[in-house]
Amino acid sequence: MPPARYFTGLVTLALTVVGIVLLLRWIDTGSKVTGLPLRVEFRDAHGLRAGADVRYRGVVVGSVRTVQVSADGSKAVVELLLDDSGVDQACVNSPFWIVSPRFTGLTSGATGLDTLVHDAYVAFVTPAERGSALRPGSLLVGHERPPALLEPDTLEPLEHGDLLMSLLVPENHGLRPGAQVIYRGMPTGDVRSAELSADGSHVELRLRIHHQYRRTVTDKSVFWVARPFLSGALFSGFTVSDMSALLSPYISYYADAGKGVPVADGWRAAAVALRPDVQPSNVPAAALRLPDPTVAPTHEPLCLVRVVYAAISAHAIGADDAIQREGTGVLFDDVSGRPVVATARSLVDGSYTEHGWFGSRPAIVREQLRVVLSGGPVLGAGRVWVDPDGQDLAVLVLDGTPPDLPVTAAALFDRAAKLPPALTAQLRCAGQDGTAQPALEVQWPEQQPDLDACRGGALLVSDKVVGLVGQKGGRERVPVAVPLQRLPEDLRPAN
Amino acid sequence: MTPPFWEFEGFGLAHRRPDGDESLLADVTLTVPAVGFYLLVGESGGGKSSLLRLSAGLLESREVAPAMTGRFCCLGLPLTAGFPAALRGRIAAILQEEGLLDELSPRGNVELALRAAGRPRTLAPALLAQVGLEVGSDRVALLSGGMRKRLCVARAIAGEPAVLLCDEPTTGLDPEAARQIARLLRQSHDEGRGRTTVIITHDAAAFAGLADGVLALDRRERTLRLLPPDVPWRSSGRSPAAAELALAGAATLGLRQRLLQFAGIGETATEALLRLPPVELGQVARTTAAFVLEPIAFVALAGGVIGGLATFFALRNNPIHGGFETALLTGTGKVLTAVLVPLLSGFFFTARIAAGAAARLGTMKRNHQVAALWLMGVRPADYLLTPLVWGMTIAMPVVTLAGVVAAAFASLLATRLVSGITTVGWTTAFFHTVDARDVQTMLLKSSLSGFLVAATTYHLATGPKRSGAEVGDAVNASIVLGMALVLAVHAGLTFFVYR
Question: What is the pLDDT of residues B279-316, one digit of tens each?
């Protein structure tokens, strides 16, 4: 035999011996493999196979070594081997369960559907209150079904500007944390928690509405728990509404667009017991217009807010008038460092714009004032000052301002500027969600802005705020430029 | 009292041929005294070689023996009813095809003969010097014709035989060399005390003045006579046509041939079992080492390719992408380790080793090396079959194990390439249903098929070989039959164990 072949044969033989030793070590129990061996007992192994994954938050952190029936035949004993990352997560109070396809009823829906096309696997979570670390070979009692999704961390995280509110419902109807909140058939938020009230009169749900949808919730919104609802009469035919809630109930709400003021965080509303007969309004004609090319929001030195005002003008004779206005305000810190909003008085004061009978003062009741900050957060507000000389200028203070509220720097104001009759300026307004809109060019008297769209909008000359768009004399529907120099000393931007 | 060398009494000898028996000797009654240097002369095809093969015990067990009548004894023991075991080792022969073992050195050939005769090996240089050979040359193939004959003489007299038979020892040599060989034979005859030497030759000149007597075989008269050495011998003419001499039994010849071949299978099987205790330990160790080391790299490579490809395609062509991977791995692991790789390793091993062994043994048979072993008193089964059986029975499971291990590691590699399963996960899944019984079954299947392939190869290769084509046929048959046996053993045992 040639020496080369002899050598190759010897090397292969040696490699075979090494390979056999290596494989035997691998096959041998987990004692020689790094990781933490565990035993978990289940009443039913759900077809779990050796070699299946062990997952923590969907990440494979170990594998199933054996699946055997216990000596007395009452349990299935699953031997796991957690690798190092799994060892870091598991503790004595971690619930382990087997993920396999299961349908747990109409209210809870189906879980483990991924295992329809994958092997069953073992999952575990670690509660916030961690127990002590597991010892090798520990015997744990596994859960027969996935633990209820009560873990706060299984819910979507909150984001800045999200509306957090309470909804009081007469009955829970199987709502669980994570259930959806639906507006016009679209998910706008979720249920964060559900608790029975102390006196047992209702169930209090904590809801979160995503910040981009928080304007859909107003004080006029009607809430109800959506579940399949059969309505109609024998001869008129039946209608099943909210059929989509068959598998999992959800919260639905509705309010006609343009009605009510946006609500602030902590708003409490009561849901109606039965599904109201809401008829969503038709799509407004304005929605058919092509949307303006959206401009990516940039960090603005100028902090604008959306100001929403609603009130009732009560009449002694005849129906009351509902007043609802929206416009822009400029947010800045006053001399005392308090955040205030300068805006048009016609926007925030019904008595300034409304008439009484025969020149009497109008009876303005149930005034509501909200300020929508850039990105969605809504704060309550109150008037602290209106121009005593009848100019269209007012200042609002905010309720519960967050500590890190960005405001317009004082250097951006030019209070000394005179506003000539022929004025050319940049007009900046806040959009519905409080974000600043692109600048518009305005020119008095030739190219005047639309009053309803731009009330309270900031007028800038050479990138400095010189005034606001107001209403001439309070009642004439003519836009005027109101100079900021009229602000009283203590409400001026701090220098 | 020394029994006579040959003793004929009403002896008749006939070749069996398909077209009828051909009578060579009829009613010969003759006594040839022991201790003599005889020339056996006669026409070609007259039965000289048959007498020699009869006397040396070289008749093929799987061929129909010549028909014999009367009595024929050698050294007082009858040869007509099979070769007596007592003569084995006492009769040496130098065949026309020398039958030198070319895998050994010239000295090794002599040493083997010495060892078989129970004499010390250290006598080999002296024996080689005695026949005029240098000790140094290390390869039989490099020897010239004259030197080969000298080596044959040395090997033949190494066992101090009582009888030395030589078939045409001077053929192919020039007169000078022929004369030297003749003198050497006479010289060694004189040195071997009490030895009888019979030389078949047509070269009377080379042996002129050396012989004590001439055994003349007359083909026409079908007689054998002992003549004094100085009487010039002359052929009495052409032999009569074979057809005239036809006796009987031609029709049954083919059937008898077939029966003998079947009996040969039983003979080989018996030999394989009875001669299992190794006599030639070195030969067994060398053969086993070669059978393990030669094919192991190839089989491991093949096993690796099979294991890797099987796993790769099982996981890659999974209709449920990424699903049930552990189940697929478990199935793949079981079929690879318990069935597929052992079977294919058996095939590869058979193709690689059985073919080589068949070619080697077939050539040895064709070159009369097997016969030479018999003549040296070395049982071919001990020297060839037992090493083959041990080698394959041990090597096939070892090599199969290498294939399986390589397949497993290739499967791990493929798994890591295709899916995200960890090494621990792979090990658990791949060997999930593989247990000690699988390994035992695998080793049993390999060992058993190794044994059967070895016996089959030996049987096919050591059958009568009259041409190179028959050697080629034996090689082909060993591969085909060996693979069929591997398949049968694997299929049968797999069914039996896992049914």
Answer: 888 889 999 999 999 999 999 999 999 999 999 998 88
* Token pair in block for residue B257: 């041939």
- CATH fit for domain A304-491, picks 3.40.50.300, 2.20.28.20, 3.40.640.10, 2.40.10.120: 2.40.10.120
Strands B196-200 and B163-167: parallel
Closest residue to B293, CB basis, from A10, A27, A83: A10
User: In the CATH scheme, what is the code of domain B6-90+161-234?
Assistant: 3.40.50.300
- Among B residues 277-336, those touching chain A with beta carbons less than 8 Å apart: 290, 292-294, 296-297, 300, 320, 322-327, 329-330
Mean pLDDT lowest among A9-23, A109-123, B291-305: A109-123
d(CA A284, CA A123) in angstroms, rounded, equals: 49
Cis before residue A445, ω within 30 degrees of 0? Answer: yes
Contacts B427 to A, Cβ<8 Å: 23, 26-27
Nearest-angstrom CA–CA distance, B42 and B40:
7
How would you classify the pairing of strands A479-483 and A458-461? unpaired
pLDDT category at B408 given cuts 50, 70, 90 is very high
Question: Looking at the complex, does the CB of residue A118 fall below 8 Å from at least one CB of chain B?
Answer: yes
Mean pLDDT over all residues of chain A? 81
Q: What is the pLDDT of residues A441-472, one digit of tens each?
A: 888 778 888 888 888 888 888 888 888 888 88
Any residues with CB less than 8 A from the CB of B482 and at least 6 apart, and which?
A: B350, B351, B354, B453, B456, B457
Residue B24 buriedness (CB in 10 A; 0-12 / 13-18 / 19+): buried
Cβ-based contacts of B429 with chain A (< 8 Å): 49-51
Domain segments of chain B as ranges: 6-90+161-234, 263-498
Cross-strand partners of A329: A305, A343
Which one-letter DSSP state was computed for residue A173? T
| Residue B40 near residue B215 (C-beta atoms within 8 A) | yes
Whole-model pTM: value is 0.59
**Can you give the residue ranges of every domain in chain A?**
30-141, 152-270, 304-491
pLDDT at A229: 67
* Chain B CB within 8 Å of residue A52 CB: yes
Contacts of B292 in chain A (CB under 8 A): 9, 13
Phi (first) and psi of residue A176, to 5 degrees: -130, 160
Q: Is B102 helix (H, G, I), strand (E, B) or coil?
A: coil
Pairing of strands B22-32, A59-69: unpaired
B236 backbone φψ class: left, alpha, beta (φ>0; ψ -120 to 50): alpha
pLDDT at position B243 is 42
The pLDDT value recorded for residue B405 is 95
Does the structure show a pLDDT above 70 at A240?
A: no
- Which ranges of A304-426 does DSSP label H, i.e. alpha helix? 345-348, 350-353
Q: State ipTM.
A: 0.80
Of A50, A83, A117, the CB nearest to B428: A50
Residues of B in contact with A9 (CB under 8 A): 292-294, 296-297
- Touching check for A16 and chain B: CB below 8 Å? yes
Neighbours of B65 (CB within 10 A): 16
Q: Are A77 and A70 in contact (CB under 8 A)?
A: yes
Q: Is A322 on the interface with B (CB under 8 A)?
A: no
Tokens found for residue A103: 């349908």
Average pLDDT over residues A267-287: 83
- Cβ-contact B343, B487 below 8 angstroms: yes
Q: CA dist A444 to A222, A455, A458, A463, Å?
A: 44, 15, 15, 18
Chain B residues inside the 8 Å CB shell of A16: 296, 300, 398, 401-402, 405-406
Residue pair B276/B394 in contact (Cβ under 8 Å)? The answer is no
Type of residue numbered A343: T
